[in-house]
């Protein structure tokens, strides 16, 4: 195996927040960003990080159930290309393949070392896909911090963006995908106040729907179908064409729990949670109402912790919305399409009760290196009319100038 799986210089990293031991230095009190924190974080730029928290996901071959669970539970996608082995064998791929965001279940793309006690918020990922992920693959990841940028914004006077690179290889040492992700580091506001700029949403409470509105969502779900085996040829696509919109929501606690069920790794429970806090004591919240220590990810399920983190209410995992954009694209492009590039940017928080309509529009079509490509702008639009995610994608399509099975990567 080549050395990209075993870098000489390693530092301990984990799925969340501050898990790399930055250069020894006395930390300032309070959860405020300091010049020293930023300097320490920048000292880790270029260091290949050991992703030990993801080891269970990277230590085993991918089974049909791994892809099926991710598609059905984490994405909410019943496309048989991702779940039916017999169906997969009849496609150009010859097997079930994974949805374009499946690699989040191998490595989250979160690279946020140092800055202990400063909350991290996932900002988005830029994916470059080279090969499909198949049953039997063993995917490993190599990750490093590549940029640390100081900014100010409407939600925090001082924040830091840490940008990391993750490379995914299969068992043949082939580069399957490259991901470049942004993580925002924002001081925790605490005391249940929520993040600056979101007070109106916190005060408004959860969305209330009429029976007629829920019936409209029901009908949209019932009519939703993947394109499937019917090829979408490059020649038939027009610039300006809109993708069929798909609904996601209204978001419930069960939807968030299902997302966790579909993952190949998640947060440690019970004894393992206490062991994790021994290793990373800054990555914990103590509930003001119960005195129980919890992982900050509890904000995805517990309103009190969500407010402590700085959110206006219980909110989704950002990768859920990334999954939804992937679902929009694969429903549209059919079995022979392949998502080559996917640039995802999270915007407003997606809270319990929010209904997201995933939409897209073709912006460009061209041929490059023998591939027939289409660029698509995508976004998620809520019941309030705002966008909670924006994205751009490049999709490879079959061409009538090629044979039906000559689509490139197989």
Automatic annotation (TrEMBL):
Composition bias, Low complexity: 8-22
Domain of life: Bacteria
Annotated SUPFAM superfamilies: Thioesterase/thiol ester dehydrase-isomerase
Domain FAS1-like dehydratase: 61-178
Region (Disordered): 1-31
Protein name listed in UniProt: FAS1-like dehydratase domain-containing protein
Organism whose genome encodes this protein: Georgenia yuyongxinii
